[in-house]
Amino acid sequence: MKRFLSAATVYFLMLFALGFVLGTVRVLFVVPRIGVLSATLAEVPLMLIAAFFTCRWAISRWQVPPTLSARGTMALLFLVLLALFETLVGVALFGRTLAGTWSGLATPAELIGLIAQAIAALLPIFVGRTWRQ
């Protein structure tokens, strides 16, 4: 049990840190030049590539078994940590309300970001598994 909890936590922390850095660069330098939606579309592939390699590394490093229960729990923990920290950062650093944080998901750029986060959360289920015919 400890293996997939550690893997999920490290996977989350590494992606959250990268997302925070790339998000800062996106907001400060890229958005003013090409707009919110285009900047988000440029950032998402980078984050998903990083998510794939980070997930694969974490699974390998902590030897998370390829069972649906282990990988599903890893995915769920990643998603819970992501939602919690996204909300906390929005409230603490940017002065958003809880309602304001979640209502922002109605914009196309935020919706694309949410879809990318869902894909990153599901990666542990699929990365490094062998599929039986």
What's a quick, concise take on this entry?
With 133 residues, the chain is an all-alpha fold. The chain is built from 5 helices and no strands.
Helix content: over 70%
Q: What oligomeric assembly is this protein in? A: single chain
Which spans of ≥5 residues are poorly predicted at pLDDT below 50?
A: none
- Estimate nothing, just give the exact number of structural domains: 1
Number of helices: 5
Percentage of residues in DSSP E strands: under 5%
Q: Give me the secondary-structure category.
A: mainly alpha
Q: What's the pLDDT, averaged over the residues? A: 91
Overall strand count? 0
Quick one: overall form?
globular
Strand-and-helix sequence, N→C?
HHHHH
Distance between the termini: 28 Å
Give Rg in angstroms: 16 Å
Note the topology.
Layout: H1 2-34, H2 36-61, H3 68-94, H4 98-103, H5 108-126
How would you describe this protein?
With 133 residues, this protein is mainly α. It has one domain.
Provide keyphrases for this structure.
single chain; 133 residues; mainly alpha; globular
